[in-house]
Amino acid sequence: MPLLFIECFLEKANIRLLTITGKLRLVIDTGIGNIAKNCRGSSVLNTKKTAVIGLGSMGWGAALSLLKAGFVVRGCDVRSEVLTRFAESGGTPCTTPASAAEDADVILVYVVNSKQVEDVLFGQSGALETARPSTTFLLCATMAPSATTAIAEKLEAAGMFVIDAPVSGGHVRALSGEITVMASGTPEAFDKASAVLDAISAKVFRLGDRPGAGSQVKMINQLLAGVHIAATAEAMTLAAKAGIDLKTLYDVICVSAGSSWMFENRGEHIVSGDYTPRSAVNIFVKDLGIVTSEAGKAGAVTPLAAAALDLFEEASQAGFGLEDDAAVAKILAAKSGASLPGVKD
Amino acid sequence: MPLLFIECFLEKANIRLLTITGKLRLVIDTGIGNIAKNCRGSSVLNTKKTAVIGLGSMGWGAALSLLKAGFVVRGCDVRSEVLTRFAESGGTPCTTPASAAEDADVILVYVVNSKQVEDVLFGQSGALETARPSTTFLLCATMAPSATTAIAEKLEAAGMFVIDAPVSGGHVRALSGEITVMASGTPEAFDKASAVLDAISAKVFRLGDRPGAGSQVKMINQLLAGVHIAATAEAMTLAAKAGIDLKTLYDVICVSAGSSWMFENRGEHIVSGDYTPRSAVNIFVKDLGIVTSEAGKAGAVTPLAAAALDLFEEASQAGFGLEDDAAVAKILAAKSGASLPGVKD
Q1: Which domain holds residue B20?
Q2: Which of A172, B274, B279, B345 is the most buried (most CB within 10 A)?
Q3: From CA B318, how far away is CA B299, in angstroms rounded?
Q4: B10 & B122 share domain
Q5: Is residue A202 less than 8 Å (CB to CB) from chain B?
């Protein structure tokens, strides 16, 4: 990334520096928004009440980061064992979104897709049954931009603030409060969610005032991420078929023009034959489905995303849906008659 | 790249350190070969006579790097204006491969494809007409591994040494003698070409004793590079169609999981609407053609490489073959009805 104009909100930083734990915020202006980066520490200006709906790997990480930062956190999940673990970690377990949303200042929605988001917000025992007006909702699921916009409008019509806030970075970073947020929303919404965003993320891209803009950028990121995972799988499979040592190939490509963030990350899973899910095949069935569907509606062609989606769908249908997304390589290996480490021929 | 076992050939380094310009070589063992990196400076143990056949952007860079390092360099090209410029730069211009190869210790072949390599080596006035036995040939074109193997066998049958030495890194690095070489060949061939490799490259991956292994790894690199360029074009086009500011998107993706070496590099060309050829569309028509053809012969499936190749072929047929490879975006934009910077709708 080229160096952009850097400005420090020194007054804000100074107040925090003097009053709490020494937190400095850097804001890098991108023209239409800004990138906020927490430099160190963690602080809460006013202890706030939060709710996290959906305690999957990313939601769990956010909830624990909020607890660590001193927030009161009510957490909601359909799995009772997760709620038990959450109570043991210091959170307040809730069995419905409505009970989690009671009294909350900020509500983070971490379920998987737009259908689930609608259910937990607007369905029976949904958050809107109890949420007070002016509550701020962070929509953290990866959704079609059109779905995000529709949901945000419905929330705003009910008097709520909304930040479109899809996240990136994986469960390890979620747990350490260091994810990236591709965010958009009104300045008021950001003001209200500022301390929460500080607690859960290392970087917040502010992509505009309109919910939907964050989801658009996340969608493009997922197009690239999904294609790169599939390309990594294709490259490794062809290499295995050609008799190339995969570890050597991995080392060479990682420092060559063929490299990608996903090649470096998922390529290692294929080399070691480890398909423990960090992110799952089914996530990319969903996310590349969003890409091709939204592109189709807009009249844009996405032949690579379509080819990658085909592979993830085949992998899911073959029973690999809950495995690591790198398991898309198993489909290519089976079709190519190639042997990959740790994969039965 | 994970840190590998590092061993320094201290005796070699010391000799050079003491006798020439202070050159240190680090060799990182990858198990089946090694990665040699020049740390600083440039030296020639014995002034050697070299020939560079094909003074295109990469060959020109290599030839000038050799001249700078003190080699005698005979250069051959079909374009008389290039030969004139080469003479002005201190090289010896030759109109045929045969005249360039006279008296050479090491011959670098930098033409575009395997057909041209065969012509300049074995055709009329080809290098084999004059090359002395035991001359070392560096085959630097990106060729199908099967073609490389066949050409190397023919050279070795004529008593020559061969290094399969496709290069990566672009013309800027070629000019500064800092390309990467994905190399394979016998230890004797490497010994004979060592000073030449030092002069033209920053990094040499030694991928085995057998010519063909270097071309295999280069082919996998090109699969990824070509797919990543096409994915960059697809992502930028969809973003443009969705009304996302491309510069902001570029800045966000460069530090997110959707990034790739090619996205960072070629994405900038699309954002600025600059299609001045650094590498050309036609190069990827050739290289992805090699990938799909070799994969087809081996029975491997490569749906992403095939989809990317379709786009590069369409771009070439539409008249963009000699433009920067990022011009593949023009095809996607035309099909999608999207407006890209600097591209007429």
Answers
A1: 6-211
A2: B279
A3: 31
A4: yes
A5: no
User: Touching check for B123 and chain A: CB below 8 Å?
Assistant: no
Instruction: Determine, yes or no, domain membership for B343.
Output: no
A34 CB within 8 Å of a chain B CB: no
* Same domain flag for B28 and B97: yes
Question: In the block, which residue shows the tokens 């529709």?
Answer: A150
Q: A246 and A286 share a domain? A: yes
B279 and B323 belong to one structural domain = yes
C-alpha distances (whole Å) from A321 to each of A47, A281, A312, B303 are 40, 5, 8, 20
| Residue B247 annotated as catalytic | no
Q: Chain A partners of B252 at a C-beta cutoff of 8 Å?
A: 30, 182, 205, 207, 217, 221
Residues B162 and B229 in one domain: no
CA distance B266 to chain A (A): 11
For A51, the token pair is 């709710």
B207 vs A224, A230, A248: nearest CB: A248
Domains of chain A: total = 2
Q: Would A98 be classed as within a structural domain?
A: yes
Choosing from A211, A240, A272, the residue where a domain stops is A211
Residue of chain A with shortest Cα separation from B35: A252
Does B111 share its domain with B232? no
SS3 content of chain B, % helix, strand, coil (to 5): 50, 15, 30
Whether residues A193 and A92 fall in one domain: yes
Q: Which residues of A181-207 are buried (b: 16+ CB within 10 A; e: fewer)?
A: bbbbbbeebbebbbbbbbbbbbbbbbb
Amino acid at position B12, single letter: K
Check which CATH number belongs to the domain holding A257 and give it.
1.10.1040.10
Q: Decide: B42 and B69 in contact? Cβ < 8 Å.
A: yes
The amino acid that residue A198 corresponds to is: D
Q: Which residue of B has its CA nearest to A310?
A: B303
**How far does B329 lie from chain A, in Å, by closest CA?**
11
Tell me which residue has tokens 């309109």.
A210
CATH number, domain of B22, equals: 3.40.50.720
Q: In tens digits, what is the pLDDT along chain A, a chain of 345 residues?
A: 232 222 233 223 322 222 223 333 333 334 443 444 443 333 444 558 999 999 998 999 999 999 999 999 999 999 999 999 999 999 999 999 999 999 999 999 999 999 999 999 999 999 999 999 999 999 999 999 999 999 999 999 999 999 999 998 888 889 999 999 999 999 999 999 999 999 999 999 999 999 999 999 999 999 999 999 999 999 999 999 999 999 999 999 998 999 999 999 999 999 999 999 988 999 999 999 999 999 999 999 999 999 999 999 999 999 999 999 999 999 999 999 999 999 987
Co-location of A146 and A229 in the same domain: no
